[in-house]
Amino acid sequence: MTFKRRVVVIGGGMAGARLVRRLGAVPHLSVTLLGEEPRPAYNRVLLAEVLAGRYRPEVVELPGPADGVEVRRGVRAVRIDRAEHGGRVVCDDGSEVPYDTLVLATGSNPVLPPVRGLFEERRSEGRELPEGVYAFRTMDDCLALADAAEGLATPRAVVIGGGLLGVSAARALAARGVRTVLAHQGEHLMERQLDQAAGKLLRRHLTGLGVEVHTKCRVRGLTTETGDDGRRAVRAVTMADGYRLDCDLVVLACGVRPRVGLARAAGLVVAGGVVVDDQLRTSDPDVHAVGDCAEHAGVLYGLAGPAQDQADVLAGLLAAEGPERAERPEDAAGAPRYTGTRALTRLTLAGPGPFDLAAFGETEPGPTDEVVQLADHTVGAYRKVVVRGDRLVGGILVGDLSAVGAVARSWADDESLPVPEAAAGAPLLHLLTHDGGS
Ligand SMILES: Cc1cc2nc3c(=O)[nH]c(=O)nc-3n(C[C@H](O)[C@H](O)[C@H](O)COP(=O)(O)OP(=O)(O)OC[C@H]3O[C@@H](n4cnc5c(N)ncnc54)[C@H](O)[C@@H]3O)c2cc1C
Description:
By secondary structure, the chain is an alpha/beta fold. It has 3 domains: about 170 residues, FAD/NAD(P)-binding domain, CATH 3.50.50; about 140 residues, 3-Layer(bba) Sandwich (FAD/NAD(P)-binding domain), CATH 3.50.50; about 80 residues, FAD/NAD-linked reductase, C-terminal dimerisation domain (Enolase-like, domain 1, 2-Layer Sandwich), CATH 3.30.390. The protein contains 8 helices and 27 strands. α1 runs parallel beside α7. The longest helix is centred in the C-terminal third of the chain and has 17 residues. The termini are far apart. Bound molecules: flavin-adenine dinucleotide. The site of flavin-adenine dinucleotide has 35 residues, from α1, β2, α2, α4 and α7. Keywords: FAD, Flavoprotein.
């Protein structure tokens, strides 16, 4: 009988699903996927479209795994027992799955803000969110939120957090006809990606879609009411200054944190995420990590593009290695390596006038950087790039994104910037004109 290397992947989200799709066809690997979510893998980036009622859940499903992959959904891995070579994974249904190579693709958990009234300790059930309060991470969150909104005559929602997630959720709720307030602690929306000018345009667009936006406001607590069934339901959100917003629904969109509990308990090195090298290897060479749970070169991406890039590199590595550990090619010259992803954030908000936004790299200039900006607030257009020496280091494009391809490519490839003769009078302005200087 031919020996097959047993690869076990924990987590069937965007990275895990992509990895097993590529590994299933490799003859000397026997691949098992353990996924806690009971449904087929889906494109998490499109959850807001499902919440908005624009796509049905089946539409955002990812292609299924290759034949031969054993997929166990609705199963949570609760412990990893590592041995000298390989080990085993213990699951919440009591089963044990032995591995030669283990891949952690456990993603992120939503950050729950320190807001009074958020949790009720229940002796039998542990911590529980009040009725009407939802995180925005999974399809189940999304469908439960959509159902709750559907069941109310005039639903009112408060979205806490004005980053990419909060903005997407607020827009989606407004599209469903929910009266929506977006409460954001920072100076302006999506401040991780945008500067003040772009944040202002985004705010204007959301307001036009019917979302009431509050910035520089911290949520202090939730007011809840206990019904006849003993369940607490949210009734209002209170701001730090005492202002009270009555509501039936609250969406928590306060960021994410890598899901590293299993790795930490197994004694793997964890910083912000599970620390991996260029072969996506953790501190145990038989255990790899990819996607939101992984930290590579000090970077936690939390974005779909890098998760997929990492899955692709790891698939190449695992496919290239032989069935025996001694045949692993990881250190050989020419073996696939993950060297980081230059990730672009894009957001499209549908509406009467669609709103497109792309941001990448360092969008605030350093002391010696040059900045080129074009703005036309009458049509909601804004373009800015930050240039260091002859390299593009970051940019924000809002409105017409015809230049995004060329500008983003120039940044992603870290090319030296072309300076065409026609642009000699304004050497950098050509970056922001229609073809982005290509
Ligand atoms: C609403 C929303 C909008 C987003 N929008 C964007 C966007 O516009 N652009 C962008 O680049 N990124 C976006 N992201 C982020 C992007 O979805 C993630 O970066 C990506 O999903 C990461 O893939 P992953 O496989 O690492 O994690 P996930 O897709 O989260 O998958 C992890 C899976 O592992 C499972 N799991 C965890 N622990 C266990 C365990 N112990 N046992 C079994 N299974 C386990 C989880 O249940 C989950 O199914 C968005 C995320 C959300 C939630």
